[in-house]
C-alpha cells in the first residue's frame, strides 16, 4: 500500500518543499513534513488553508490531482456579503470564467463552521456582512473557487479545503499531519 499523508496546510505556507521565488524565506511543506519520498498530490494556494495530500505513488497522485478523474474536493468558504439562493444556483449550474465554464458544483450556505483561528485573521468590515458556504467541485483550475465566488458577486475572504474524495482534514490542527492506510 502506498504511503499517503494528510496535512492541514496553514495559511501562508507554500504548497511545495522548497521556496525558489523569494529573497525572504517563506514557510514551505519542509517546515512541517520531514518524510522522504512523498510529494504533493495537487496544490493549495499560499493564501488558502486545509487539506493537502502527499504520496510517493504516482498513480495515486494522478488520481487525486488530475481533473480527468473528477475526484470531488469540498471547500468551506467564507464569502463577502449575504449570499442569496440565486448565487448558489449559479454555482450549482457552473460559472462562466475567463478560461471557460466550470463544471456544475454542489453549493450550500452553512452555519459558521467551528474552525481553528486563522493567522493572520481575515479583515473584518463592520459595514459588510459575510457568510459561509460549502462548495464541492470536481476540477481544479487555478484559484477556481475564488474566481467562482467572485463571478457570482461574493468574493472569498477565507478558503479552507475540507475534503478530497473520502479523505478529510477534520481532527488535524494547522501544521499537523497523519499517515493514512
Which terms would index this structure?
2 domains, 3 helices, 14% helix, Alpha-Beta Plaits, two-stranded antiparallel sheet, 181 residues, nine-stranded mixed β-sheet, alpha+beta
How would you characterize this protein structure?
By secondary structure, the chain is α+β, with helices and mostly antiparallel strands. It folds into two domains: 4-67 and 166-180, Pseudouridine synthase I, catalytic domain, N-terminal subdomain (Alpha-Beta Plaits, 2-Layer Sandwich); 72-164, Alpha-Beta Plaits (2-Layer Sandwich). It is 14% helix and 30% strand. It is built from three helices and eleven strands; from the N terminus they run βββαβαββββαβββ. The chain has helices spanning 58-65, 85-93, 144-151, and strands spanning 4-9, 39-40, 49-55, 73-80, 96-97, 100-101, 106-110, 130-137, 156-164, 167-168, 177-180. Strands 1, 2, 3, 4, 7, 8, 9, 10 and 11 form a nine-stranded mixed β-sheet that branches. It has a two-stranded antiparallel sheet with strand order 5-6. Strand 9 (156-164) and strand 10 form a beta hairpin. The model has no long low-confidence stretch (mean pLDDT 92).
**CA-CA gap between termini:** 7 Å
CATH superfamily of the largest domain: Alpha-L RNA-binding motif
Just name the CATH architecture of the largest domain.
2-Layer Sandwich
Helix content: 10-25%
Quick overview:
The chain is an alpha+beta fold and 181 residues long. 14% of the residues lie in helices and 30% in strands.
Amino acid at each position: 500500500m502506498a504511503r499517503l499523508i494528510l496535512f492541514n496546510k496553514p495559511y501562508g505556507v507554500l504548497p511545495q518543499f522548497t521556496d525558489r521565488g523569494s529573497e525572504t524565506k517563506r514557510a514551505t511543506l519542509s517546515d512541517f513534513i520531514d518524510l522522504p519520498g512523498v510529494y504533493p498530490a495537487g496544490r493549495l494556494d499560499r493564501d488558502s488553508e486545509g487539506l493537502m495530500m502527499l504520496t510517493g505513488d504516482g498513480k495515486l497522485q494522478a488520481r487525486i490531482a488530475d481533473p480527468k478523474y473528477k475526484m470531488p474536493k469540498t471547500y468551506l468558504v467564507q464569502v463577502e456579503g449575504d449570499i442569496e439562493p440565486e448565487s448558489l444556483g449559479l454555482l450549482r449550474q457552473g460559472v462562466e470564467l475567463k478560461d471557460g465554464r466550470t463544471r456544475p458544483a454542489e453549493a450550500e450556505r452553512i452555519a459558521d463552521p467551528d474552525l481553528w483561528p486563522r493567522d493572520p485573521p481575515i479583515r473584518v468590515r463592520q459595514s459588510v456582512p459575510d457568510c459561509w458556504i460549502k462548495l464541492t467541485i470536481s476540477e481544479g483550475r487555478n484559484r477556481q473557487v475564488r474566481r467562482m465566488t467572485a463571478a457570482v458577486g461574493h468574493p472569498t475572504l477565507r478558503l479552507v479545503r475540507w475534503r478530497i474524495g473520502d479523505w478529510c482534514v477534520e481532527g488535524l490542527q494547522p501544521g499537523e499531519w497523519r499517515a493514512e492506510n
